[in-house]
Amino acid sequence: MSPTWRDRAAALPDRVSIREVGPRDGLQSEDPIPTADKIRLIDALSGTGLSRIEAVSFVHPRAIPQMADADEVWNSITRADGIRYSALAPNLRGARRALDAGFTEIEVVVSASDTHNRNNVRRHTEESLDELTEILAVLREAGARSEVIVATSFGCPYEGDVPVSRVASIIDRVVTDGADRIAFGDTTGMATPRRVAELLDVVRGAHPDIPLLLHFHNTRGAALSNVLVALEYGITEFDASVGGLGGCPYAPGASGNLATEELVHMLHDMGIETGVDLDALLRVAELAETLVDRELPSGVLRAGPRTRLTPKPDGL
Amino acid sequence: MSPTWRDRAAALPDRVSIREVGPRDGLQSEDPIPTADKIRLIDALSGTGLSRIEAVSFVHPRAIPQMADADEVWNSITRADGIRYSALAPNLRGARRALDAGFTEIEVVVSASDTHNRNNVRRHTEESLDELTEILAVLREAGARSEVIVATSFGCPYEGDVPVSRVASIIDRVVTDGADRIAFGDTTGMATPRRVAELLDVVRGAHPDIPLLLHFHNTRGAALSNVLVALEYGITEFDASVGGLGGCPYAPGASGNLATEELVHMLHDMGIETGVDLDALLRVAELAETLVDRELPSGVLRAGPRTRLTPKPDGL
């Protein structure tokens, strides 16, 4: 006899912390939009109850022109009390720029797949890990909190499956090097319930105390099922992107990031708090759709929450 | 300490039976297509390893013009050995037509929500249940297998939440009346992991032996998470629609049925057999997209399975 919903719900987290990544991970895969629109988007997100927003990345403008105005965006938004804003830095130079800009939470990236890492930053995973050692020391010395995002944690579009043991050894290394937190990036939507569970089986056992965050793309429709498994493992931190902003570079037309409102919608229905006002978030998703001028893939944006009723037809 | 993936997988079914509903539930919500194209679609589906196909419905052509050619479609397809083809009948007249056409598996429908039932068939749920008593007797006498689909089992777009006790009492009634099988219809995509679990908690306890089938729409992105919960309850039968054929009448632009290839993709990755050749199914999804002449919402159709690799960029 399987446990009832009441038993299951009691074993799940009471609260989940969502990091909104639409302004960074989302917009970097959309056609560039004006600086003023980015500021408008972030300020709107700051009013939804979200407690964490990844605002910008400090990456070379030739690599990602969408983030060329990172400093201006960061200096122009209205920073709300109680919200943790963070920036992504692909290398030491970016990390220093993020520190100079005043960020105290900084994400750095390495790809578990060597081919993917070489395609991203023209160096082997091992070389990136060596640079990470230096970056993590710089961040720690500056008093900033560091998070290492392990891209392609659930598979690589060039290499296919990435062995869990390889991801695990990267975690071992960066934890030793002083990473404060770890994020697993489902870069091209290859995560499945099985892959999530298999990875967490290993990592949770090896590093029971380090905070873990999961970042899913909904490329193959499985994002919320992956979240469900992660919740059962006690994971309480997830990335998501308002409206599902952000495409998938390897699959034109495929949906990218998990939409924040789909995540909030499912969690609230399960009785898990997020602090987010879903109606306010949906208004921002509408704004995001206007700003990028395309229909975003979020189902909850299209159809509305399940609690939003349709007027009864005449005569009923 | 939560169980490992190996423990979890061992507790899941080894095999799932998928009923393909694209030709019926899918096409009835698309713009009408020619009879020859419907035949082509069903014949293509018959070659994918699917073991069950809901082929047509016998409904008044004024209500659903897309199914006006049900007899012709059914008489013209090439029925493959080992595939169970079924038809949906909304009323006694439709059930008799389905029997006359030679169907031996027939789905009948009642909506758990009274408003939804009245909107569909202009009568109260109770009145439909009275007619079901008669239909089930006719089907049993004819030696056909009957399935009662309980629409709006997870919520009604007009009434909102439908109490589990109401769905459960409908099940009690139709089981007493001789229904061979029960399907729970997530008519407008209001199911969530919680709602699925809460319903199965009650129904599984009351009727441990009757076959149950779950029919999810992906309107709010939760379809595969709902499947995951249902698998944990031992459910082994699911509806799905190739390519995600079929819109949602209450939410223009929202995705409708769970795409068969997204379901197969997740199940196979979990080591659960379906008998379906995913590559063959994807070719049919492409065909379906051509036949309805619009981009279908299936992520696995867009991006390909996670095992389909991208060629490495030059120099890597």
What does this structure look like?
The structure is a homodimer of 316-residue chains. With 316 residues, chain A is of the alpha/beta class. The first copy, chain A, has one domain: TIM Barrel, CATH 3.20.20. The first copy, chain A, has 13 helices and eight strands. An eight-stranded parallel beta barrel of chain A has the order 1-2-3-4-5-6-7-8, surrounded by six helices. In chain A, helix 5 packs parallel to helix 7 (125-141) and helix 11 (260-269) packs antiparallel against helix 12. The radius of gyration of chain A is 19 Å and the shape is globular.
Name its key features.
homodimer; 316 residues; alpha/beta; TIM Barrel; 13 helices; 8 strands; 41% helix; metal-binding (chains A, B); HMGL (chains A, B); Hydroxymethylglutaryl-CoA lyase (chains A, B); Aldolase_TIM (chains A, B)
